Amino acid sequence: MKNQDFKFNWPLVGNAHITEFLGKSIARESISSTYIFNGPDNLGKTTLANHFAQILLCENQKKNSVIPCGVCSSCRSFLIETGENLELGNAHTDFHLIKKDKDKKNISVTQVREFIRALSMSSFSGLHKVGVIKHADSLSTEAANALLKTLEEPRDNVVIILITENSDSLPQTIVSRSQVLNFRLVAADTIYNYLVEKYGVGRVEAKNFSRLSLGRPAMALKFFEDKDFREQYEVKVKIFLDFLNQDINSRLEAVENLVNKKTQGQEAVRLVKRTLEVWQGVIRDFLLLAYNHNNLVQHHQVEAADRHQFSTPDLLRFQSLCRQGEKYLATNVSPKLVLENIAINI
């Protein structure tokens, strides 16, 4: 592939420093054995990892100036559709993906050992073998140790991509053996233009969604495409705004309705984690309004609220309660109890 000017249609909004780096690495044939795609969720890290794999496995990469070519059998395997989602884990013989099961807290050592076994087999295409680990920051200790043994003795033409929200949660021995690419939040104007130009979103909606997403293009698009997701988000905002004017019994009842008996295990953990993120965004908006930074406010509902009913110390105390709740979640405290503690003490 050397000395050719390749063209890539990277499926990424913003973060040009990442695609420029990967493009130069491909052109120079200086592919690392392990990458860490690090940064907040909903920035396109998984989509980019899949596309990078498609490039490395494209059968026409030496014949074509535009890769992936999109027409070879390898590229077409990346477009196998199952229902409404692209499910790539079993679509390509030389591509392997593992992620945390919805009902589990960690990626298990069994999953990683099977992943390593699959990558150790000869490449079907004669090119690369590519493995992607989503939620890599949730690897169990045993799973991380098993992966480390593979990273210490990398195989030729095997590329592993770890996708994380926080690379600091990975063992330093893994990070030190990896090329870390840090994804950044994207400017609201860039997301706004993306929604308007690519998806035809109305300008008022595009402005609202780009603000709501706080720099995360995939979330902005989800607000537009998924009405249920948008409504559930708005419910979480309303619950917190109502909290501020309710008695303790009404607040506890709201928690009961949000985290009911049907919501258990890791599903409850994810729900409460998302709820705390939303509530902290609302608190942030009140603080911004207190200092007249109206143009940075995320939620239009906050703009309509009485901004003078809380002092800055009140808002900082609310914020501290939410952050404490996140710590409790990480130590396996009952998700419902986490929200009830905030409801009682707010």
Which helices and strands appear, and what pairs or packs with what?
Elements lengths: L15 H12 L6 E5 L6 H13 L15 H5 L3 E2 L2 E2 L8 E4 L10 H12 L8 E5 L7 H12 L5 E7 L7 H4 L3 E4 L5 H12 L3 H10 L4 H9 L1 H17 L4 H11 L6 H26 L9 H4 L8 H19 L4 H11 L1
Parallel strand pairs: 1-6, 1-7, 4-5, 5-6
Antiparallel strand pairs: 2-3
Helix pairs in contact: 4-5, 7-8, 8-9, 10-12, 11-15, 12-14, 12-15, 14-15
Describe it:
With 346 residues, the protein is α/β, with parallel strands linked by helices. It is globular. The chain has three domains: 16-182, P-loop containing nucleotide triphosphate hydrolases (Rossmann fold), CATH 3.40.50; 186-225; 227-345. The protein has a five-stranded parallel beta sheet with strand order 4-5-6-1-7, with helices on both faces. Strands 2-3 form a two-stranded antiparallel sheet. It has 15 helices and seven strands. The termini are far apart.
